[in-house]
Amino acid sequence: MHSHGNARRRARPPVHVRIEMAARRLLFDSGWSEMRSPIVSMLVLLAGIPLSGCRETPTAHAETRPPAPTPAPEPLPSPAERAVERLSLIPEFPRATGGPFPFGAQDFLVWRSRVPRIEEVEITSSLDGTRQRALFYDPGRDEPRPLLVALHSWSENYLQNIGIPYGIFAERNGWVMIHPDHRGPYRTPHSVASELALGDVLDAVAYARRRARIDTSRIYLVGYSGSAMTSLVLAGRHPEIWAGVVSWVPIYDLVDWYGHLRSNMPDRHYAHEVAAACGGAPRPGTPAEEECRRRSPRSHLRGARGRVNVYLGVGIWDQLVPPDHALRAFNDLAAPEDRVPEGAIVRIKKTRSIPEALGIPDPRPLYDAAKAKVVFERTSERATVVVFLGGHDVIYNAGLSWLGEQRRDVLP
Questions:
Q1: N or C, which terminus of the chain has less Cβ within 10 Å?
Q2: Do 45 and 113 fall within a single domain?
């Protein structure tokens, strides 16, 4: 042990080290790592420390240390996570029921008052060259956006005001929307899921893709009543296009529906219009029966199984299109073990109640908000069917919320 008198004075660090130490104290003790005063800049330069940050850079005079291990990069989100988009729904429009809707006349000015940038356009048919009208909304975004194709119902045209909430939704969320006429009310051979009517919907998609930047993995189709039938035909015949198809209270089989109308609603206009579209009453063995079958989802829907995400919604008390139509459509899309038994379908149609054997579904807040409690729900393959307490209805937000989650991820 050395005495205090004989203790050696500790050697002072070299000048360049003292400069480095002083510079670091000035930078880090003050917290001003981006300081740009001339003195600090000189000190930092001498010390070999970059001005752009606080990370040590080895110099000829500094102690060389092994580089710190590079931190693992943040994992990239999965395609599903990247695709999730927070939607602004339309809670002020929870439900639409067949009949008058609180927007006034079915007129373009009514649409424009609710969706100021909506346009009335004409699209040349690729099949017969006629000019077909549609409503079109483009949010004008630079990045590709989803396309919502909304179809009017049986008795209406492209100005149907029940479609206005879809325009409001598109505006709020920056989606592109088109509302084609597809040959107007369903009462002529050119309408009712005819080749021309289907072609008009496809032409509308092509028009929207020319006019706006469309995310082709997010092209959605929604139909109601008669156009729900058309949407299912398009799902089966053109599964390569659609990321998701929503069909509210769909007609599955025109022949069966014609019989229902004749037996239960002989004074309504629908049976006459089915016959007018198909070339006569679709009695067994007639060309009209064959034509009605050709226009019905039952002849095409299996082409969508496993390839298209399809959502079917129906009110259990629907008198116009009984719930068995949606359930039979679901069975065409479902795996065999998930299909609704025929006996249960017959009972649901007859009693308008759900057999206990089918189970109790989980609560669905968007249906509850529309006062349309879900009483049956089943999903299989890429199809979902929902039966709710209601009639010939649309539950807007349930369908739109579901669509927002769908992507086209199956090759044609």
A1: N
A2: no
User: What single letter denotes the amino acid at residue 225?
Assistant: S
Q: Which of 188, 190, 185 is nearest to 128 (CA)?
A: 190
- List, in sequence order, every residue forming a beta bridge with 121; answer none if it has no partner: 134
> So what's the pLDDT on residue 84?
65
Distance CA 291, CA 308 (A): 25
Number of H helices, E strands in the chain: 15, 11
How far is the CA of 6 from the CAs of 2, 11, 263, in angstroms?
6, 15, 121
Q: Tell me, yes or no, whether 304 and 213 share the same domain.
A: yes
Residue reference for tokens 């630079």: 142
Instruction: Indicate if the alpha-carbon torsion angle 24, 29, 34, 37 is positive or negative.
Output: negative
Together in a domain, 242 and 331: yes
User: Which structural domain range is residue 57 located in?
Assistant: 13-65
Amino acid letter at 171?
E
- What is residue 81's predicted lDDT score, i.e. its pLDDT? 44
CA dihedral of residues 249, 253, 256, 258 (deg, nearest 10): 80
Q: What is the DSSP string of 365-395?
A: HHHHHTT--EEEEEEETTEEEEEES-SSEE-
Q: How many separate domains does the chain show? A: 2
**106/211 same-domain check:** yes
What is the pLDDT, as a whole number, of residue 104?
63
- Looking at the structure, do residues 246 and 314 belong to the same domain, yes or no? yes
Residue 277 lies in a domain: no
DSSP code of residue 54: S
Statement to judge: residues 26 and 175 lie in one domain: no
Site of tokens 């399809």: 310
pLDDT digits (tens, 9 = 90+) for 300-353: 999 999 999 999 999 999 999 999 999 999 999 999 999 999 999 999 999 999
The 10 Å Cβ neighbour count of residue 40 is: 18
Which of 65, 84, 100 is the endpoint of a domain? 65
Q: Which residues pair with 313 in a beta bridge?
A: 248, 386
The CA distance from 86 to 172, in Å, is 11
pLDDT tens profile 16-37:
444 445 444 443 344 433 334 4
Report the DSSP pairing between strands 96-97 and 393-394. Answer: antiparallel
* Mean per-residue pLDDT over the chain, rounded: 85
199-210 residue pLDDT tens: 999 999 999 999
